[in-house]
Every structure is written in structure tokens, then in C-alpha cells.
Amino acid sequence: MFGPFRITSSLSGGLLWKIPWRMSPMQKLRQRRRLRAVDQVVETVAKALAKKGETLKSLDRWKEEMPTEAQMLPRDKYSMFDRKAKKYRKGIHKLPKWTRVSQRVNPPGY
Amino acid sequence: MSFFRITLHRSFIGMPQRTRDVLSALGLHRRGQIVFQTVSAQSAGMIMKVKELVRVEEVDRALTKREVQDSRRPDKGFWLESRVGALNGGAKAKATGEGEEEVRL
């Protein structure tokens, strides 16, 4: 149990990465900023295209389907659906490349 | 004519090949790089593909590569007074053959 030859999961299994169960307040702050930055990009593009009178399918779809940071619930900002997780939810920081991908909507009812 | 001023803010390391291809089509190859694209549905579509990685502004004029470099260059901390020799005793400076520039901090 104690001493130099104790069995821990990292000693017996080698590499062990642990992701905390919940996000820290600072992680959440940065997540909100990233969401807002993406909103800003979409807004800028939409405004510029509207000035020229052009339309873009991907832009229209995004505007229709995706909520902005202000419209999102905290639940959706910081966690996401997972069918294997307890209560079908896991922290969004468990998503691979989570700081560089958009994950805003979840299945209805979950 | 207006332009998108696109800055690659986040690295594309580990991103899918499609995303990397879109970035290179936009002309972005390293983080922090700034490119200008004309406002069109085509460029807007490419920006939408990589919206998580870039910062976008709409500007009236596209800067050249040189102008972008100059705008990003930090202040040197000193400047050269090129006419100082002519102002105080130009003859003396000529006689000693010293340069007419003085460094001010």
C-alpha cells in the first residue's frame, strides 16, 4: 500500500492520462470566449455577404440550427450527450479536440 | 471592394486533412498569419469550414505582404536624427568626416 513498490494504475499500466470529471471555472470561461469568437466570425461573414447581396447555404444552415453563445443553456455549453455515460451526459472537455470543434446541440430530450 | 482579413488564430495540428486543405486554399500556412480574401460566397464558404480556427474582419483594402509585416513590426526603441549634423556645425562634421546621424534613445 505504501513504499516504493506500491501498485498504482500508472505503474502497472504505463501511460495514464486522467481527465477530471468536471471543468474548472477558468476552462468554462475560456469555452464561453471561444463560443463567442466563433459567433463573431459567423456574424462578420454574414454581414459582409449581406452587403454584397449574396447567400451561402452553409451560413444559412448554421444560423438556423445553431444557437449563439447567449442563447445556449449552461448545460449545453459545458456538457454533451453520451449514450454510455451515467445520466447520458459527459463534460464537453472529454470530446477530442474540444477547443477547436463546434459542439453546440444535443439530441432533444437529453 | 471589400475584403476579409483572416488571421489563423488556432493551430491546425491534428485537424483533418480536409480542414488543412481549406486553410492552405485560403493561403494560411502558419499560426498568426494574416491573409486577405475578397468578399464572395466562395471565400465565405471556406471561412465557414474553419471558423473555429480563424479570426475574421471585414476591411476596405487588402494590404500587401510588406504592409502587413510593417504593421506588425514592434517599435525599435530608438530613432535616427538624420539632420543633426547639418543643424549644429555642419563644417565640423564635414572636417572630421563623421556621419550626420545621431542615435536617440
UniProtKB/TrEMBL annotation, chain A:
GO molecular function: structural constituent of ribosome
Record keywords, A-Z: Mitochondrion, Ribonucleoprotein, Ribosomal protein
Annotated Pfam families: L31
Biological process annotations from GO: mitochondrial translation
Superkingdom: Eukaryota
Subunit annotation: Component of the mitochondrial large ribosomal subunit.
Intracellular or extracellular location(s): Mitochondrion
PANTHER family: 54S RIBOSOMAL PROTEIN L31, MITOCHONDRIAL (PTHR28271), LARGE RIBOSOMAL SUBUNIT PROTEIN ML60 (PTHR28271:SF1)
Protein name: Large ribosomal subunit protein mL60
UniProtKB/TrEMBL annotation, chain B:
GO CC field: large ribosomal subunit; mitochondrion
UniProt keyword terms in alphabetical order: Mitochondrion, Ribonucleoprotein, Ribosomal protein
Gene Ontology biological process: translation
Main function: Component of the mitochondrial ribosome (mitoribosome), a dedicated translation machinery responsible for the synthesis of mitochondrial genome-encoded proteins, including at least some of the essential transmembrane subunits of the mitochondrial respiratory chain. The mitoribosomes are attached to the mitochondrial inner membrane and translation products are cotranslationally integrated into the membrane.
N-terminal signal peptide: none
Entry protein name: Large ribosomal subunit protein uL30m
Compartments in which it is found: Mitochondrion
Major localization class: mitochondrion
Gene3D superfamilies: Ribosomal protein L30, ferredoxin-like fold domain (3.30.1390.20)
Domain called Large ribosomal subunit protein uL30-like ferredoxin-like fold: residue spans: 4-54
Entry annotated with the keyword Ribosomal protein: yes
